[in-house]
Specification:
This protein has two domains: about 5-140, CBS-domain (Roll); about 140-215, Fe-S cluster assembly (FSCA) (GMP Synthetase, Chain A, domain 3), CATH 3.30.300.130. About 40% of the residues lie in helices and about 20% in strands. The chain contains eleven helices and nine strands. The strands form three sheets. The protein has a three-stranded mixed beta sheet.
Length: about 220
């Protein structure tokens, strides 16, 4: 399955800061570029952590004694007293490689409950950022593109079936398969593979009626 890669969706123009960047400069960058977080990098441009809006808000929330929930947080008091990126950041950062598939990236985001991943090269240097909204762009693939992949890559190349064996209709990412395949196992495999195609929302298989079934439907009813 040729999933879209992180390199195809990531943003390469990444606003970044270093450990000594002051609190107010970080707040200014978030507002100026309309972003919710910035990566913190070292002198070699390798990510050390991430400072998000939530990290900055510790200054407001934990700087007062009227928030019992914040008081019980081990990271709250420390971040409330921080004045630069090194003290504010959440570390270590979660990173992805540019050759990861969108499935790999989505799985990592879901596992850790984050909205973005920093993308690094083979030397661990920051080359981009991929977000949840970036991954959702796979659902903008056209129905024609999805249908072509199902017929050519799955039906013919992977399963070895004739392209005429199954009628493939795709509407707004909803795939409807109708026809007759060599075995029930092949049907199951086809449906599962279709579900993994980037941009597919749902998959439905409708078996073709056999000649006997058609004859039965067309035969006149006998009177008692």
């Amino acid at each position: 399955m040729n999933h879209v890669k992180v390199r195809d969706l990531m943003s390469e123009a990444v606003v970044r800061v270093q450990g000594g960047t002051p609190f107010k400069e970080i707040a200014h960058l978030l507002q100026e570029y309309d972003i919710t977080a910035v990566p913190v990098v070292d002198d070699q441009d390798r990510p050390r952590g991430v400072v998000s809006e939530a990290d900055l808000l510790h200054k407001m929330r934990d700087g007062h004694g009227d928030d019992p929930v914040a008081t019980g947080s081990p990271s709250g008091p420390a971040k409330a007293g921080a004045t630069d990126a090194a003290g504010l950041m959440t570390s270590p950062p979660l990173c992805a490689r540019e050759d990861w598939s969108v499935v790999d990236a989505a799985r990592e985001m879901t596992r850790h409950g984050v909205k973005r991943l920093l993308v690094v090269d083979d030397d661990g240097r920051l080359i981009g950022v991929v977000s949840r909204s970036d991954l959702l762009r796979v659902f903008l693939r056209t129905d024609r593109t999805i249908r072509t992949e199902i017929v050519e890559e799955i039906l013919v190349k992977t399963l070895g079936e004739a392209p005429s064996a199954v009628q493939v209709d795709v509407t707004h990412g909803h795939v409807v398969l109708s026809g007759r395949l060599s075995s029930p196992a092949v049907v199951t495999e086809l449906v599962e593979l279709c579900r993994e195609v980037d941009g597919v929302v749902a998959v439905e298989f409708r078996p073709a009626r056999t000649a006997d079934a058609e004859a039965s439907l067309e035969a006149p009813a006998h009177s008692a």
